[in-house]
Specification:
single chain; alpha+beta; 6-stranded antiparallel sheet
Length: about 625
C-alpha cells in the first residue's frame, strides 16, 4: 500500500518529485522519488502490509526495462506468482506488487482481468518510453492525472501531488462545482480543478509520445440471470462471502474490522471472527443524540462473536476537523458521514494497521430504501398528465420511500427522473433560486452523469438500472472516496470484502425479485445470514452512517458557518445570491433543517476555495498546518 505520483514526457526535476511525494498523505520509512530516465520519474509513500522488509517501491523487472508502483493490495498474488514462476519469471521480493509487473510483461493491459484486489498502479516501460496507469474494477484506490501543455503527463494518488508540478494550474472547474452541489461529490472523470481528471474505475490509461489512450476492462453484467433455486443461490453466496473475507485476512501487521451493527459490517465481522485464531478487534462510533446511534447493535454483534470491541461516542462536530476533511479530500466533498469516518479511523489506528469494512453491500444486495421505487415503476411510466391525476398514489409512495419524498417536490418525466430525485442534494429545478445568473451561465446546464447513464444503458429490471448507476457513480465517487481518504489520513488500510468482484458479479446475475422482495431490502443476503447473525440485526431498520448535522450547524459549527458562507469573501465569488444564502442560514438558526445539506456543501466549498484556490497548496500533511484565512 502506498501513495504514488509521477511525471512522463517532460524532464523530471528532482525537487518537483520530492514535493509530489511529500504531498501524499501517508509517510513511510522508504519514502522518496526516483528518476527513471530523462523523461520520467516516480514518487511514492509506502504503508507496508505485505513483505514489509523487502517490498520497497518502485519495483523493477529482471532486466530493469520496466518499473511499477502500486497503491493497494492484490489478494490472489500467491496463485498468480506460482504460474509466473513456472513460466520462467524470476522474483526479487515476496511483494504482491512484483507479481503484477511480471503479469503485465506477459499480457499487457489484459493482466488487469486476472487481478483480485484493490489497486491504482503505474508502470514505466523503458523500451518504448510509455506510461501505463490503471485502477481497480470498482475504484477503491484513486488515481488522478493532468496533461501538460508540451505533451507530458503528471499523475498521482492525490490531487495535491499533481498541484506541485509548476505547469499545473489551480483553476476551479465550475461545471464540476455545479455537479458537486447537485450530488455532494464531483463525479468522475472530472475533478474540481480544470485540467485535472480522474481515471474512472475499471479503466486503464496509456501515455506514449504525448498521446493518451483510455480503455475499459470491466463492467458488471446484469442481464444473464440465474435460474437456480433460491436455496442454491444462498449457499453459493455464503461460500463467496467467506472466501472474500478469508483472502483479505493476509497481513504482516495487526488487523481488525469496522462494525456499525448493520447487516453488511456484521456479516464481515462474523466471517472474519470465525476464520481468526485470535479475538478480532472491532471498532464502532456512537452519537448523541441517540437517533443517530447504532452502537447498541454493534455491541450485540461484538458479544455474539466475542470480539475485542472498541467504541467512541461523538457528542459534537469539531470545527477543527472540518478543515482537516477539506485538506485530505483535495476537492469539495459533501458527504457528512466523512466526519464519523475520520473519527472511527482515528480510534482504530493505535490498535491495527489493516481494517475490514462492509462497504459495497447496499449496491450489490439492494440495501437502500430508495430502491423501493422499483415497486412503482409502472406508475412512473405513465404519461405525466395521467400521473398528475394520481397524486393520491404519489404522495403515499413518496412517504414510504423515505428519501424518495423528494420525488413529490420536483417535476419528473419517468422512473429515471424519480430515482435521480432521491440522489440529489440540490435538485436542478431549485438552482435558479440560489445561483447567480453569471454562475448559471458559466456552469451550464449539463445533465448529471448519473441520470445520463440510466437513460443510456437501461436494464430489463428498473432495480438493476438503479444498482448499475450507483455502482458506477455514487459508490466510487462518494462512498469509496470517503473511506479511502479517511483511513489513509491515519495510515490505515481499509479492505472491503463485499466489493470483491466475484461477489459483485454473482449478485448482478441474481434476479431482482431475490434482492428486493415486497418491502424487504437485501432479501437474499438476509435470508442467507439467518442463523449466522442475530435476528435483531437482520430485522432492524436501516440507519446509514448519519450525523446530527442540523444541530451541529446551530451549535458547535455555528461560528464557522456564519464566518464562512455569508462572509464578504464567500459572497464576492459571485456564485450564489447573497439574499438566498442568508435566508437559508436564518432558517437553519431558527431550527429548520430544510437546507442543512446545502449549507454543509456551501461551507465545505468555501473552505476548499480558501485552501486550494486562493493560495498555493502546502505540501505539509495537515490542514491545521496550512495557512488559512478566516
Amino acid at each position: 500500500m502506498c501513495g504514488i505520483a509521477g511525471v512522463a514526457g517532460v524532464t523530471p526535476e528532482a525537487d518537483v518529485l520530492e514535493r509530489m511525494g511529500e504531498a501524499i498523505i501517508h509517510r513511510g520509512p522508504d519514502d522518496g522519488g526516483l528518476l527513471l530516465d530523462d523523461i520520467a520519474g516516480f514518487a511514492f509513500r509506502r504503508l507496508s502490509i505485505i513483505d514489509v522488509a523487502g517490498g520497497h517501491q518502485p519495483i523493477f523487472n529482471e532486466d530493469e526495462s520496466a518499473a511499477i508502483m502500486l497503491n493497494g493490495e492484490i489478494y490472489n498474488h500467491h496463485d498468480l506468482r506460482k504460474g509466473l514462476v513456472d513460466r520462467g519469471h524470476r522474483f526479487r521480493t515476496r511483494s504482491d506488487v512484483e507479481t503484477v509487473l511480471h503479469l503485465w510483461e506477459e499480457k499487457g493491459e489484459r493482466c488487469l482481468t486476472e487481478l483480485r484486489g484493490m489497486f491504482a498502479l503505474a508502470i514505466w516501460n523503458r523500451r518504448d518510453r510509455s506510461l501505463f496507469l490503471a485502477r481497480d474494477r470498482v475504484g477503491k484506490k484513486p488515481l488522478y492525472y493532468a496533461r501538460l501543455a508540451k505533451g507530458g503527463i503528471v499523475f498521482g494518488s492525490e490531487i495535491k501531488a499533481i498541484l506541485q508540478h509548476p505547469d499545473v494550474r489551480r483553476d476551479p472547474d465550475l461545471i464540476a462545482l455545479d455537479h458537486f452541489l447537485t450530488l455532494q461529490y464531483v463525479p468522475s472523470p472530472m475533478t474540481a480543478f480544470r485540467g485535472i481528471e480522474r481515471i474512472p474505475p475499471g479503466h486503464w490509461l496509456r501515455w506514449r509520445a504525448g498521446q493518451v489512450e483510455l480503455g475499459r476492462y470491466w463492467r458488471l453484467e446484469y442481464e444473464d440471470k440465474f435460474r437456480e433455486p433460491e436455496q442454491e443461490l444462498k449457499e453459493e453466496l455464503l461460500r463467496l462471502l467467506r472466501e472474500a473475507v478469508a483472502i483479505r485476512l493476509e497481513s504482516e501487521v495487526p488487523l481488525g474490522a469496522f462494525l456499525s451493527g448493520g447487516v453488511d459490517s456484521s456479516a464481515v465481522v462474523a466471517f472474519a471472527a470465525q476464520a481468526s485464531s485470535q479475538p478480532l478487534k472491532t471498532f464502532s462510533i456512537g452519537f448523541e443524540p441517540s437517533q443517530f446511534d447504532e452502537s447498541s447493535y454493534a455491541r450485540l454483534v461484538a458479544d455474539k462473536f466475542a470480539t475485542d470491541h472498541h467504541e467512541l461516542v461523538v457528542k459534537a462536530g469539531a470545527p477543527e476537523l472540518i478543515d482537516d476533511i477539506v485538506w485530505h479530500y483535495d476537492q469539495p466533498f459533501g458527504d457528512s458521514s466523512a466526519v464519523p469516518s475520520f473519527h472511527v479511523a482515528r480510534i482504530t489506528r493505535p490498535h491495527v494497521t489493516v481494517v475490514l469494512n462492509g462497504d459495497g453491500g447496499d449496491e450489490s444486495f439492494a440495501g437502500y430504501d430508495r430502491y423501493r421505487i422499483s415497486r412503482f415503476a409502472s406508475y412512473f411510466r405513465l404519461p405525466r398528465a395521467a400521473r398528475l391525476g394520481l397524486q393520491a398514489v404519489a404522495r403515499p409512495a413518496s412517504r414510504f420511500l423515505g428519501r424518495g419524498r423528494r420525488i413529490a417536490d420536483v417535476g419528473i418525466n419517468d422512473q429515471f427522473d424519480a430515482y435521480y430525485a432521491t440522489l440529489v442534494h440540490l435538485h436542478p429545478t431549485r438552482k435558479a433560486g440560489l445561483y447567480t445568473d453569471d454562475f448559471r451561465s458559466r456552469a451550464g446546464e449539463e445533465i448529471s452523469p448519473t441520470l445520463a447513464q440510466m437513460r443510456a444503458t437501461p436494464h430489463a429490471a428498473l432495480l438493476d438500472s438503479m444498482l448499475d448507476t450507483d455502482v458506477n457513480n455514487y459508490l466510487p465517487d462518494d462512498l469509496l472516496v470517503k473511506m479511502d481518504v479517511a483511513t489513509m489520513a491515519y495510515s490505515l488500510e481499509a479492505r472491503s470484502p463485499l466489493l470483491d468482484h466475484k461477489v459483485m458479479e454473482f449478485m448482478a446475475r441474481v434476479p431482482a425479485s431475490l434482492k428486493l422482495r415486497g418491502g424487504e431490502t437485501k432479501h437474499l443476503l438476509k435470508s442467507a445470514l439467518r442463523g449466522i447473525l442475530p435476528d435483531a440485526i437482520i430485522d432492524r431498520p436501516k440507519m446509514g452512517f448519519g450525523v446530527p448535522l442540523g444541530s451541529w450547524l446551530r451549535g458547535s459549527l455555528k461560528e464557522m458557518l456564519l464566518d464562512t458562507v455569508v462572509s464578504d469573501r464567500a459572497l464576492a465569488r459571485g456564485y450564489f445570491k447573497p439574499a438566498a444564502v442568508r435566508a437559508m442560514v436564518s432558517a437553519q438558526m431558527a431550527g429548520r433543517d430544510d437546507y442543512q445539506y446545502t449549507l454543509w456543501d456551501l461551507l465545505l466549498l468555501e473552505r476548499w476555495h480558501r485552501m486550494f484556490i486562493d493560495q498555493p497548496v502546502s505540501v505539509r500533511s495537515g490542514a491545521n498546518e496550512a495557512t488559512l484565512s478566516a
